[in-house]
Amino acid sequence: MLDLFSSGIMSLWLDAAGVRSGMPNAVSLLAWRGGMPGLAVAEDLAFGGIDPANPDLPAVAAVREYLKDLKDKNLIEGNQGIWVQSGMLPLVSQQGTVLMPGASLTKIATSLASLETWGAAYQFETGFRGTGPIRNGVLQGDLVVSGGGDPLFVWEEAIAVGNALNQMGIDRVAGNLVVTGNFRMNYQSDPVAAGEILRQAIESLRWPSEVQAMYSKMAPGTRKPQVTIAGSVIAEKFAREGRLLLKRRSLPLPEILKQMNVHSDNEIAQILADNLGGAQIVQQQATWAAGVPAAELELVNGSGLGVENRMSPRAACAMMQAIARSLQATGLTVADLFPVSGRDKGTLEHRHIPPSAVVKTGTLDTVIALAGAIPTRDRGLVWFAIINRGTDWDSLRAQQDIFLQKLVRQWGTASTLPLAITPHIDGARPALGAANRSDILLGG
Predict the structure, then answer these.
(1) Residue 52, CB half-sphere, CA atoms under 13 Å: how many?
(2) Count of beta carbons in the 10 Å neighbourhood of residue 3
(3) 19-36: pLDDT as tens digits
(4) CATH number at residue 416
(5) How far is residue 107 CA from its own chain's centroid?
(6) What is the rounded distance in angstroms from the CA atom of residue 100 to the CA atom of residue 439?
(7) Which has the closest alpha carbon to 288: 105, 34, 26?
(8) 182: pLDDT confidence band, cut at 50, 70 and 90?
(9) Pick from 426, 311, 273, 376: which is nearest to 79 by CA?
């Protein structure tokens, strides 16, 4: 293969595939399209296309039957997109390279861009400074919170902060609570409103029933913090001088992404996209990492809200695979970022997707989408994306599930779960409020 690069043959292959050989990720795109010369991308046929180099007639028949059932039941409107591939080999396509509203499949792009930018070990940091000394349990000055973009700074996280402040001997702040930086509390972006929620969270005597309910689910033995703010909550653009008392590290990025994808949380997705620099940056990062042609991904936000977020089914598969590759050296898998059928609830709670499939759902008024990977005996790990246009959500979801079940019956159930989709993160038990992510820095 190195000889091919040096001889210029690789450049000819890229040009033949419609890829500029000078583009930075051209080799990645070639690998995604098949990985070897002569492996042409499937052309769409009337009811399901097929890669002539890798025919899978049963899969084509399943797609034809699936589309016919949708049509007979009057469930579809406009284009229907399907892409199925085994590993890197395209098997079948129906409008697989056509831009369509992807709904929350957009969160695949947001997940990929987040990993590419920050890495799997990344944790957001929220800093707490004091502008005066601590005397007899009182911080003689202001408590300044400097946000670092944590999208999951919620009640439990604030409770942990309050307990850490108590641990260092602070039970009262004589001054104000000052909010600076990129700080959100319970998704609230207004700094004063976010600060008021934080103030309530660290003073347990002011807890409403909602916080009591959250607290009851935290680790046994977790204390109830009591930190009183004597002054007001104010917002300032620039961080104040003061002694760094405490850093609160967020859940690791993969755990945040798992929560986002299991529950298809639009707020987390948009916060991450904003932290990254906006939808265009997410689009650029995702297309680069996945080798996706720029024409197959168009984003206006990070969540998928709105039909203006469009992608091809092929691009959805490519981005899922790019995430899997990105995680290979981390000990994690794509199943640690997305819901797993039979294991995670959230958007899969009432679905009948084959067990152990790793998927991302998407829903808009006129869009039902699904993408991911299913383990099979004969075809190994099969990656797929389905984008349906229609308004009967329940029926479209049921037909998607039946279609995947047919593919598994055709190719057989995998005898063992592939390592590439073995989960390690339990999405049902995020360690929100864990004390070990508070770094007390009295000497800072």
Answers:
(1) 5
(2) 8
(3) 333 333 444 443 444 332
(4) 3.40.710.10
(5) 5
(6) 46
(7) 26
(8) very high
(9) 311
| Per-residue 3-state assignment (H helix, E strand, C coil) for 197-216 | HHHHHCEHHHCCHHHHHHHH
pLDDT, average across residues 161-181:
97
Strands 310-311 and 233-235 turn out to be unpaired
**Residues 374 and 271 occupy one common structural domain:** yes
**DSSP string for residues in 108-135:** HHHHHHHHHHH-TT---EEEEEESS-EE
Assess if residue 354 is contained within a domain.
yes
Residues 210 and 325 grouped into a single domain: no
Domain presence at residue 136: yes
* Amino acid occupying residue 104: S
- Identify whether 439 is part of a domain: no
Q: Which of 58-72, 181-195, 260-274, 397-411 has the lowest mean pLDDT?
A: 58-72
Mean of the per-residue pLDDT values for the chain?
88
Domain containing 135: what range? 125-250
- Which residue among 204, 235, 250 closes a domain? 250
Residues 6+ apart with CB under 8 A from 265: 259
Q: In this structure, is the dihedral angle defined by the CA atoms of residues 345, 351, 357 and 359, taken in order, positive or negative?
A: negative
What's the domain count of the chain?
A: 2
The CATH number that applies at residue 185 is 3.50.80.20
Q: Which residue has the tokens 């300032």?
A: 236
